[in-house]
Every structure is written in C-alpha cells, then in structure tokens.
Amino acid sequence: MAVAQPALEKESEDCSLLPLVHDIIKCMDKDSQDVHQELAKLKAKIQEAREQISNMPGIDSSPQEQQQQLATLREQVRTKNQLLHKYKGLCMFDVPKAS
Predict the structure, then answer these.
(1) What torsion, rounded to 10 degrees, do the Cα atoms 58, 62, 54, 13 define?
(2) Per-residue CA distances from 47 to 31, 40, 99 (Å)
(3) What is the mean pLDDT of the chain?
(4) pLDDT in tens, 75-90
C-alpha cells in the first residue's frame, strides 16, 4: 500500500492549476514575454484534465444509473456479510489452537 500513496500524491499534484496561474501572474507583473508560453502550459493542463475526466469510469452514466448501481453493490455487500457471519458460526472445522 505504501507504493500507491506516492502515485496518488503525484496525480493530485498534476491536477493543480495554481502554480501555473501563479507563474502567469508573475510574468504579467514583470511585463515578460513569457506570458504566452505560460498561458499555453495552462491551456494544455486544462485539456489534460478534461481528458482525464472523460476517461473516468461511470462518467457516461446518469446520476440515477449510478444510484441504482450503488444500491445494487450495497445489497451485494450486505448479502455477503450475512453469509460470512453465517459460515463463521457453523464451526465446520476444528482449528487447533497454537500454544
């Protein structure tokens, strides 16, 4: 699980637009010619975010479909938990206790 955490931080860092906006404002304050370059970076980052959003699973489903799917999944979890508790109570196997 420790490997997944840095990847998650990297993804959230990639979605931040504030550093680019800050760079644009700094360029504007300095009357720099780099403003157009910084604006192009911002535009590319926004386009990348749009592509990531359109590739998200379930984005093409309506809210009602998502709610129905959520209700179905919750019912499956409830059923599986009930079965798990039932099978735990059966004690079909004698497990020797470690001493």
Answers:
(1) -70
(2) 26, 10, 62
(3) 80
(4) 999 999 999 988 887 7
The rounded distance, in Å, linking the Cα atoms of 55 and 74 is: 25
Contact between 73 and 52 (Cβ < 8 Å): no
Please state whether the predicted TM-score (pTM) of the whole model is above 0.70: no
Q: Residue 69 contacts by C-beta under 8 Å, 6 or more apart in sequence?
A: 58, 61
- Furthest-apart CA atoms within the chain: distance in Å: 79
* Whether the Cβ atoms of residue 41 and residue 22 lie closer than 8 Å to each other: no
pLDDT (tens digit per residue) in 4-23: 444 444 454 467 888 888 88
Residues in the chain: 99
In 1-99, the DSSP E strands lie at none
CA–CA distance, 22 with 41 (Å, rounded to integer): 12
